[in-house]
Amino acid sequence: MSSLSSPTNFFTSKLNDALGWARKFSIFQYPFVTACCGMEYMATNCSHYDQDRFGAGFPRFSPRQSDVLFVVGTISHKMAPILKTVHDQMCEPKWVVAFGVCTCTGGFYDNYSTVMGIDTIIPVDIYIPGCPPRPENVLDGLMKLQDKIQKGEQSRTLYDPRTKIGRPAELQGGYSIEGHIKHIEASS
Amino acid sequence: MTPLQRIQEQFPAEIIETHTFRGDETAIIRPASLLPVAKFLKETPELDFNFLMDLTAVDYLFYAGGRIQKEFRFEVVYHFFSLKFNHRIRIKVPVDEKTPEVDTLCGLWASANWYEREVWDMYGINFKGHPDLRRILMYEEFEGHALRKDYPVNKRQPLIGPQN
User: Fold this and answer.
1) A112–B151: do the CB atoms touch at under 8 Å?
2) Is residue A14 part of a domain?
3) Which domain holds residue A157?
4) Chain B within 8 Å of A88 (Cβ-Cβ)?
5) Which of B138, B151, B163 is nearest residue A78 as measured by Cβ atoms?
6) Does domain B3-112 sit in CATH 3.30.460.80?
7) What tens digit of pLDDT does each residue of A176-188 get?
8) Which residues of A touch B164 (CB under 8 A)?
9) I need a labelling partner for A106 at 20 to 30 A (CA). Which of A35, A117, A152, B85 fits?
10) Inside any domain, residue A94
């Protein structure tokens, strides 16, 4: 203890930084896997890419024991209340990752059954687009999430389609049948 | 004698139209005769259609871009298969838009139960005598029938969250 109190070995820190550092390397994730993105999620978790290198290798299948909700795959309106319940059951602090373009914006779905982006239901911290995203892309998203956890930031806002607030600008466009038909006509 | 020829012989007055394409036989029959025809297909020993492979419906509103106007808006389509004889037949029943109703086949093939619930869910066709005609894919609060051609593509009715 005498060396710590000496002026040459003085060490300043903040409790929040230490907490953030500890949290970002011990992510207990809840994989909410509903569709084909689950394959890429599993690939990222397995030995080739190995999410465990980032301290995120331990999925918990109870929302009460997890910090990060990974929403992997299309969410239908029928599934939406269940996703909302799972998110509500998680203890603070919690983060949400939208994995794949269906969870980010609805993707190419534009129909009676699909939720057009889970950020209309629960706040999303990290968007990982791709159909499905490659493991490198997932790890990139995971590192961005770690930065966010280190800073102690959490998303609290939902996306409102009328005001266009709450979703990154590059994910605003979305898919439209009119745009798709125009694209086909222009390219043929 | 093929199954199609057999039911033509048995129910000459009930068959509206038939066609055959590469060995696949189809009969369009009158709605009132669905139950007797189905019973005949299942219970005649030399036909023995013991397997209801598929049961679905077609909405002919705006058919061929609106150029073809059908007399009846819907058709319920049944695909039967015989595991014993390895032969198939397709039965179609025209259904009116005002009273979309046909008899249930639950009493003959137990698998018809969920198929008919799906057709009710997606097309709103009522199956008379069905033991438990509820939606099977969409949720209870869903309004309308999603695969009807006049259901708007962009219509949203979310359970929770904002209209999107």
Assistant:
1) yes
2) no
3) 23-187
4) no
5) B138
6) yes
7) 556 556 655 665 5
8) 115-117, 120, 161
9) A152
10) yes
